[in-house]
Records
---
Amino acid sequence: MNLPVRVVKGSWQNWLGRVVLFGGVGLFMFRAMNEWSRSGLGLLTDALIIAIAVTGLNLITGYTGQLSLGHAAFFAIGAFTSAMLVTGKVWSPFFTDNIWTPGWTMPVAAVVCFLIGMVVGIPALRLKGIYLALVTLVFTEAVRALFKYGEFEGVTGGATGIKGFGYLPPSWTGLDGRSDLVKWFFWLSLAILVVVSILSAGLLRSRIGRAMVAVRDNETAAAVMGVNLFSIKTLVFGLSGAIAGVAGSLYALKLTLVDADIPIFGLFGSVTLLVALVVGGAAQNWGPFVGAMFYVFVNDFARGVGEAPSDAVILGWFVDSGTKINGLGGVTFGVLLILFARFVPFGAVGTMRMWRSKLVQVVPRVPAVAGVVDSRSSGPLGEEGSGSVDSTPSSIGAVESPGPIDPDRPDSPS
Amino acid sequence: MSGDALLAVTGLTAGYGPVEVLHGLDFTVGEGEIVVILGANGAGKTTTMRAVSGMIPRHGTVEFGGVDISGAKPDAIVRAGVSQVPQGRGTFTDLTVEDNLECGGYTVKGSIAEDLERWYGVFPRLAERRDQKAGSLSGGEQQMLAVARAMMSRPKLLLCDEPSLGLAPLITKELFKVLGNLRDEHGMSLLIVEQNAGMSLALADRAYVLETGSIVATGTGDELLADDTIKEAYLGVVN
Ligand SMILES: Nc1ncnc2c1ncn2[C@@H]1O[C@H](COP(=O)(O)OP(=O)(O)OP(=O)(O)O)[C@@H](O)[C@H]1O
Ligand SMILES: [Mg+2]
């Protein structure tokens, strides 16, 4: 059998591959829930929540090409929206009692972040690359400062934040209020991640999704095709922010408190999301999930190294046994990231696809156009064919085999 | 002439920030006509295209089909029926050939399946490569893709910015044949800006010569081809 094996898109083999992939991940999740410790499952839930936020970031940064360092702000706004609503700190019209159950604060967080995201998208019309990153960074810090601002203490909790709320599993879940709390958040996060991923995949397959990639590839050409840059950028910034906001809301309900000084609500959070996106694979459908898992678990591992480094053999030569070295965890994580960037250049998912395409290529069904027989011998265009400089694919986007057949469209779900 | 022209441009000035690049251009494109604007590097050809398609701020009047589109936004101008093949082709390299074409039909309401088949019929090589990433096409194929993509918005007028750029003479010939066919068989009007005087003037019904933002000569394609100054400046023929 010759490698790579060609599998026709939409054939039963193609579907089998998908079933194995989704089944494998599903099985992993199921076993994790039943067998992992509470702290392990809690960590996995954190990874899922980050994956939701990164899925949002992927829309604007991965697919539309607008670099955002503002997504921690949406995360924070989502978190504070939920906290303020469930604790009754904001005025609810027409009701004296607080009508907000924790679950219903999530869609509110999404709507609030959508509207704010549209406004944040406006600078993206004129600013590109690092300049846009700078403006969104300022946005992140401004939002954080606003939540800390003393005058708003009655609403946002000011410097001390808001405590004393949570989200107990509803009775229909059959989960026990307190002892199953970890499981409840795990399932809730997983369910939201699945829904958000499906919606995002649907968006990418639509006309708007193509316009997004067109804007990233060539803004001028997209504009002359009639793509309204203003609408696309503000819309996608809004959607992207809304998704990050839902993640923030989930994060706050799980943590049972919000505080503007929590690092993930600031620049650190924005960088975390961006790192997870790049590590997992920007503009890859599985990128946010893999990147978030990598980020959370490798970070946790690195922190472990920081705990008692001198038990390690080589470090033990330099420091006494049992000494803690502050910051070593961070350094370890940093070194791992650098190694990752060096050896896994297109993100984990991009690299896995590259390897996979050496074994299996998904090829499109043969187009049914009459009268087309041999492509190499038809007219002068054929002669130019493969020899021309222009025939090499662009290096950044071309993570997959540069062969004549593209194994996958960027948005295909396998 | 300008009364029944499809595109009528009068006193068009445009530029970038404080710099004025176009100093009041007047030109027209009639229904079913191929008009070429000939100009050297930096003459303002691309700027003219951008000004007509609404990509940059402009002064003067641009009338299309009798309607003033001087103040219209790019997407409104596309919807009105003006489509553009940008300089350097503007391929969406990460999208497939088919997705590129579908982007071209972005402004069309309703199904574009028939348009796809129609242009695949005109460009069979694109049909063979419909699921391939557009960035992996050859330069000539990408230029064909750019033309087909522009046609997907069902335009009445096609703007082509230096379509021959970077193409071998044989491919350029093929391409210009296709552009001629668009006029003859599909009833299109075309405005082409070019440096390649020989081939473009042979194709043109009428032509203008643009020098540093002003039109300095005009005539039919054949008249300009026969003109000595043109021969000298654009064809390298010294008398
Ligand atoms: N984005 C821009 N900002 C500022 N000046 C510009 C910009 N684009 C073009 N120019 C200037 O406008 C003038 C005309 O440029 P234009 O691109 O229209 O020329 P052109 O005729 O298309 O040339 P070429 O054949 O090289 O494409 C040049 O002097 C150029 O430097
Ligand atoms: Mg130009």
---
Amino acid sequence: MTGSPQYHLERVRKVFGRGQVALEGFDLQVAEGERVALIGPSGAGKTTLFRMLNCTIRPTAGRLSIGGQEVAELYGRRLREMRRRIGTIYQQHNLVPRLRVVHNVLSGRLGSWSLLGSLASLARPAGLETAHRALTDVGIGEKLFSRTDELSGGQQQRVAIARVLMQDPDVILADEPVSSVDPSLAETIIKLLLAISDHTGKTLLVNLHSTDLALSYFPRVIGMKAGVKLFDTAAAQVTPELLQELYSGHVPENGAGEPSREPEPRRIAV
Amino acid sequence: MSLPPRTLGSRSIFPYLFGGLFLFLVADSWRRAEVNPGIFFEAEGREHLWRFVTGMYPPELSWEFLELMVRPTLETIQISVMGTLIAVLIGFPLGLLATSTFSFQGLLHESEYRGTGVRHGLKVGLYGLARGLLSLFRCIPEFVWAFMFVRAVGLGPFPGVLAIGVAYGGMLGKVYSEIFESVNTRPLEAIQSTGAGRLQIFFYGWFPQVLPNITSYTMYRWECAVRTSAILGLVGAGGIGQQIEISIRMFNFHEVTTLLLILFALVAGADYVSAKVRSLL
Ligand SMILES: Nc1ncnc2c1ncn2[C@@H]1O[C@H](COP(=O)(O)OP(=O)(O)OP(=O)(O)O)[C@@H](O)[C@H]1O
Ligand SMILES: [Mg+2]
């Protein structure tokens, strides 16, 4: 993965069913080891961009290559291998609520485990030590054997971070990793992610609703709005006017600046 | 300000259509099913009822009879357990195939494979086949299944087991597939993003989400199977039902009372056990 830029996007476009355009003409270059913050109003397309960057959805049009490989040409095993090298901390709780914390953390290893190995681990967790260390790194080591749905929102977010630590990817994508923790913990978590990227040379992309955090901790900041890139520059170059423009005309849809939520899937009670 | 376009068809006439149809059906059924509560208040009707009720009292409680009934009682339990087990074995795989998000669309398929039409067609075909089989199994009543299996394998508990297995397999499969469709896909996507394969996603993300629901529904169905196995006995499929049928034929209504009491105890017991299991989930 050396030489070529880690991410190379050219005129990427994403349209969801019923003609919902989430991303339009998006160009992006990210070098290995770079640390980038993405900011923008709710509905700008940040989460959609990350889902393409981690290869779980495909662009409708345009070019997306990672480490010199065209993602459009990846299928099956090679696609999974690519995904394994990209770790994502999701915005909404993407943990399995019924599983114990330890299994959610260990699920970060699934890309490296065989099917039988991963099944065996459900009965008798493999790599308890490392899972415990990852949880301790995010400050909730004592929750190792708790049931995940008994944790608070912020604790669950940290479990998701621990899962990425277990995955040990080349790239970390963090989609609003601090949306449900208090401000001081938010700073701690951002610092933790930066430290990991520092020590291991991992590329780090973070979506943030807090412009303060983005501007004070990240050398490069990208502003996006309504599916297009508004600016992509050094943090020092981001002026109040630019921010004004980024968030102007933006009427909060679901409460002030709240991240938008996709509707929960329908559940049936039996 | 203009309203955003409605994407879900809420301006449909179907609610009115179905509402009207429903009212019509209720009114029509009342008339045609000869519902007549007045019968309870006429002297003749009351007398019939009274004779029927007194004829059943007291229950037959002699040791001889009770001892004879131990085997059929156990048999009823065995039929319900084995029948439910077979139903799960039929319902689970068919239910999975009959789940669109498992068999041909959603995150296990989109962006995973190069889209060849043949492969997709095959998956959709399998899905349709599973749905068809489940409907078939379910729409033929247990009673009729039992009748056919008695013809095929002879009298005794085995046809009862088969009948429950097939009919309940259809019901379980249908409800399982609804439970599967309602799985929250966000955790699945997160697991997928770590590079996990389809089966790993299934066991780590899917299965833990559906397990409590399918267990509790299966337990509920087992409860029903206890009662059903009694009905099936009436066509010769073993268990208490067969004894009830014999006693009725012999006009031994005291025995019928005892058998109904046993059945009541069985159903209550099944209810208790299944509640216990559900509370553990
Ligand atoms: N699965 C989907 N189907 C249809 N439309 C979608 C889907 N996912 C996202 N969208 C739409 O794409 C647009 C961008 O959504 P996205 O989730 O990427 O925004 P975001 O920048 O992450 O917002 P937030 O800051 O609130 O998390 C929104 O208008 C959203 O409605
Ligand atoms: Mg988002």
---
Amino acid sequence: MVDDESRPVVEATGVAKRFGPTVALADGNLTVLPGETHALVGRNGAGKSTLVGVLTGLLKPDAGEVRFAGRPAPPLGDRVAWRQHVACVYQKPSVVGELSVAENLFLDRQPRGRFGLLSWSRLRRAATDLLEAWSVPVDPATPAKELTVEQRQLVEIAGALSHGARFVILDEPTAQLEARAIARLFDRLADLQRQGVTFLFISHHLPEIYEICQRVTVFRDARHIVTAPVAELDHAKLVEAMIGDARGLVQVGHDRPPVPDEAEPVLTLDAVGVPGFTGPVDLTVGRGEIVGVAGSAASGKRELAEAVVGLRPRTGQVRVAGSTVKPASVPAALRAGIGYLPADRNADGFVPGLSVAENATMTVADRLGPAGMVLPKRRDARGRKAIADLDVHTAGPHQPVGELSGGNAQKVVMARALARDPRVLVLVHPTVGVDVRSKESLLGVVDAETRGGRGALLVSDELEDLRVCDRVVVMVAGRVAAEHRRGWDEAELVAEIEGIGEKHV
Amino acid sequence: MSETLAVGGPEAPPRPPTPTGRPINRLRLARLRDLALVPPIIALLIYGYTLKPDVFLTKSYLVDTVLKYQTELALVVLAEALVLIVGKFDLSLESIVGIAPAVAVFLVVGQTSMLGAPWPTWTVLPVALVFGALIGVFNGLLVVRFKLSAFIVTLAMLIALRGLQLAIVGGATISNLANRIPTIDNLGSLRILTVPLSIWIVVLAFAVGVVVLGYTRFGRSLYAVGGNPDAARAAGIRVERVIWVTFVVAGALAALAGLMLSARLGSVAANQGSGMIFTVFAAAVIGGISLDGGKGSLVGALTGVVLLGLIQNVLTLAQVKPDQIQAVNGLVILVALVLARMTSGKAQD
Ligand SMILES: Nc1ncnc2c1ncn2[C@@H]1O[C@H](COP(=O)(O)OP(=O)(O)OP(=O)(O)O)[C@@H](O)[C@H]1O
Ligand SMILES: [Mg+2]
């Protein structure tokens, strides 16, 4: 027992895993000490989630060893034993859509009542309590498929943390959360850490690493690069370890030419309202302009974007380059020249079984050959171009997107949004789950594309994304509360997003 | 999970955040979906009554002319529903309906000395059940261990078992079973409280099924595995085992259905069960079981069976010519599907 105090909670040595020709992990080493919050960082496709799969017993490593508290990991089939060692919030959504939120929270551990049968009332109560503790405002009877991305993420976190496991892995838990929910999550993690729970935390938001982690491990190209206390690895050094050169990062968009006031509008929102979410909103995006839309999850910014691309019914008028777009019709929006990057890439971003090239060219299948035929050569060429432009880490244009790492799948969805040569891009949380360097290239693409005369509406609460924008509007409770030109003050913007110190316009 | 595109149709439903505190509504909707087929069933009953007002709505008519002929179908639908809910297919069930009683009966009364036959007559029931279960084990092995497509595996199994049955029964029919095998006699003619035993068996099987699916962790894991196997695995469910057990249970249920069919007819024909799987799928799907897995209820499936049974009966009463009845039946199934889709679709919103 005394030994357990000093023994690593989990120790992985020389873990290797290949998927066919792809080496997902060549040399994964990780040692997590009791009571610490350990960060695991690396670029998209570095092998982080693969290691998580191995550590939770879902993937069988080709080589290497995993030990929990000094003892070898249980056999793969023994799910119950694994669950006693480790709980996990996976990067890919792992809820069963048809089942209720309550059942998802307590899957395979539903409370039992009389005769050993499940007690639905106790399940309901337990779920209600759990959801309340996490301030997730959903009815536990809701089918999980009806949750928003944020809600789903919170449900998964709440479920994983309620197992009472002493070691919890969180694979990009914050990617889909807004600032307030992240703060609440971190409070909860600190609480649990005080009670002796150990965490492995994965994120592409480096400030978060410094905020809550004590030690950090960096993976690059499927290998372990370094493990060090966060205090010894400042931001620049951390980025260098992740990307492998000392070039550092550049601030995209700092040299954007100012957009003239009289720029002809490519996207006009005329009193556009989304019933139940926003009041009438007026907004224009000019030629060559990137307009950022910031706001909390409840601000209706995402719903507004979804209404613009025809996914939701709306009131008011949307015009693309002067011509009116039919409401509530995605094909009409596409035809009018809107390119769309959805927030929930796993639900409506890509077809997992189709290749990178097929996904990237899905919206332009009619332009890949004569008479409606798709010429594989042309498709692959386009696929390769997308891979290069967006820096997608993949085995090639023929790899199914379902096999890509989370961040790389996101880049393929971006490629699809750009494929149709849209007049205006509507991007919702474009850099979610994308590594620091790829963020740069992704935003770089938006920057370059808009310089050529397109417009972009960029819905995000990432300050880094918003910094690229020529103009940022802040939405609070379904209406535009403030508007800034480039060069806004960070603290002021954050306060406005939170709804504090809101300016009255 | 979902294979829809971002650019789905205009009907792609937005996901509204659900306001809290409407549990009663939800419950009611869920129930409604189960009972979506009740209005058409009532309509058929009324129509049947207008066709034959003197007998149609009497208990003896409904029990002995309508329901009794649906009992085997109902059990196979139950079996198929379980397999569909866990996200797989089992086409071989209809061949189990034939082969399991054929093998069991053959060992008891066949002209053979294989395996020490003739076996005592009481072995008919256990042998049939075990045989059906073994086929489930084999299906499960190929699907779970060798990761083959359930559709193809069970299709091949269907063909193979049909051939085996032809070899055993020899193109003829093993008949006059009721006199020779007491178990079969009982299955075919015993009544409890004036209701045939086979109906009691179906009621009991569905009751057990409803309790297991609704109130046990194993039953719920069927939905989880069918809905999202990765999530189920992550939650600690032994996905492979759940699937396997389901195949085995389905095989045994189909075998029992086969025995009941033999008992009702007093014989095992060379083509017993042949073609049944289409009606099985129709009833299950009309009853709200999704072919995609993870969705549907047994109560719904049962209403699907009752609906199809009534349709058949009413068609006969309406004096549709026997050579047309199949075409009409197919048409009616299509209409029923559309209606079921529409009613349940409305209930969902
Ligand atoms: N099931 C699979 N089949 C084939 N290749 C896979 C599979 N899962 C992962 N890979 C590949 O393994 C590599 C590592 O993926 P992994 O998901 O571990 O990356 P990651 O570090 O988690 O990235 P991200 O930050 O984007 O989530 C990627 O190149 C990916 O394409
Ligand atoms: Mg990952």
